[in-house]
Amino acid sequence: MTYKSLQVESFDDGRIVRIKLDRPKARNAQSRGLLVELDQAMTEAERDDEVRVVILGGTGPMFSSGHDMGSKEALEERSPGPNQHPSALVNGGTRDGSERRMLQEWHYFFQNTLRWRNLRKITIAQVHGPVLAAGLMLAWACDLIVAADDTVFADVVGHRLGMCGVEYFGHPWEFGPRKAKELLLTGDSIDADEAYRLGMLSKVFPADELDERTLAFARRIAQRPTITSLLVKESVNQSVDNMGFYNALQACFTLHQLNHSHWTVVNGDDYAAGRPEHGVVDWRTAPPMAPAQKTVP
Which residues are CB-neighbours of 84 under 8 A, at least 6 positions away? Predict the structure, then answer.
């Protein structure tokens, strides 16, 4: 397939596929078109029996800045007109109020991430630069995460939007409960070494060797019998689900929608996030993130 917002490469006679988000000028912000294409590319890799490992990376200076909040392309995708994305008119797109937002986000931010988490192939997130907000969702959906040594991770939506986190709320499972609260309440970031210490990352590579070393790691994984890889993945995922992961995601998605609805009432319009007068920082002019440090308030 030909993609507008992705690069897709195949290696080793199709045993490994690398998908890269390819909106570098927009810092790989996740427009609706990009997300729909990513679901198509993931599905294509899943259905191909030659594929054993899928790598998910990004072009340009960073893996992903999160959801596309305001680029011209994203605004046109959501608005009536010749460039409106077809997905804006289905899956709740023609409903009113909170129902429309809930259904659209359920399909295109939540369920798609769950699908990728449960893909019937081993997936490796290859991240670099800042990984922000919904960028975390994409990485956390993968079985393994490798990072360049310049990578930082943060969910800034509490600090900049007055939201309780992103739609796929993996934070307590990935950061730990108290660190998740700290990072969400402050908007601070952690670096690759801290993420490795927390168990979120499998490997940390020099930035200029990230492509090559991730591919070498994928080749090790691809040597396993496909049934072994599938059942290792399923055993771990089912164990975590039985610990409450899946039910917690469902509950927190509902809380996320409550948070949106709160702001639409407070704002008196369709803007579903906090504004500076409510004590949040304007996301368009927000200062650089600060690293979370042990001795700094």
Answer: 76, 77, 78
Measured at the CA of 75, the angle between CA 183 and CA 37, to 5 degrees, comes to 75
Decide if 119 contacts 42 (C-beta within 8 A).
yes
- Residue range 190-244, pLDDT digits in tens: 999 999 999 999 999 999 999 999 999 999 999 999 999 999 999 999 999 999 9
Confidence of residue 1 (pLDDT cuts 50, 70, 90): confident
Q: Identify the DSSP state of 276.
A: G
Residue 26 sits at the vertex; the CA angle it makes with 25 and 30, to the nearest 5 degrees, is: 140
The first and second tokens of residue 193, run together, are 């070494």
Structure tokens at 208: 């200029």
Measure the CA–CA gap between 127 and 110, rounded to whole angstroms: 20
Contacts of 144 (CB under 8 A, 6+ apart): 122, 123, 124, 125, 202, 217, 221
> Three-class SS of residue 6?
strand
| Dist. CA 104–CA 124, nearest whole Å | 27
